[in-house]
């Protein structure tokens, strides 16, 4: 059975969608960065319950950060439809930095 030919979306509509997607992802990246900063601040509090809550939240923010990196990679493939994105590619900044401490300093 023959399928009808697929209609192609006009480039102007693709450009509109690419711009909306880029703006939405940029906003999500900004919100995720702020959430990572708040979580890091909670981790340094003296309240043990807040420290425990922030540890789990930091893992989730890290996962979201990785998903956003993938999303930016996919959006970058639309740069021919989104000239603004082609001129100003998204900044690649790590939202979370993992530090492994093998030995703590001795207190005097």
Which structural traits does this protein have?
single chain; 108 residues; mainly alpha; 3 helices
Structure description:
The chain has 108 residues and is mostly helical. Helix 1 (11-43) runs antiparallel to helix 2. Helices cover 62% and strands 0% of the residues. The protein is built from 3 helices and no strands. The radius of gyration is 21 Å and the shape is elongated.
Mean pLDDT, rounded to whole units? Answer: 77
How are helices and strands ordered from N to C? HHH
Runs in which pLDDT lies below 50 for 5 or more consecutive residues are none
Indicate the overall shape.
Answer: elongated
Biggest sheet record: none
Topology:
Elements: H1 11-43, H2 48-76, H3 83-87
Helix pairs in contact: 1-2
Short description:
By secondary structure, the protein is mainly α. The protein is 62% helix and 0% strand.
């Amino acid at each position: 059975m023959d399928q009808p030919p697929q209609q192609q979306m006009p480039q102007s509509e693709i450009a509109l969608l690419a711009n909306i997607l880029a703006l939405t992802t940029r906003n999500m990246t900004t919100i995720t960065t702020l959430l990572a900063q708040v979580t890091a601040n909670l981790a340094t509090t003296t309240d043990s319950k807040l420290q425990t809550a922030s540890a789990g939240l930091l893992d989730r923010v890290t996962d979201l950060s990785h998903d956003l990196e993938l999303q930016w990679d996919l959006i970058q493939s639309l740069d021919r439809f989104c000239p603004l994105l082609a001129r100003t590619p998204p900044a690649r900044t790590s939202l979370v930095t993992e530090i492994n401490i093998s030995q703590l300093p001795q207190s005097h």
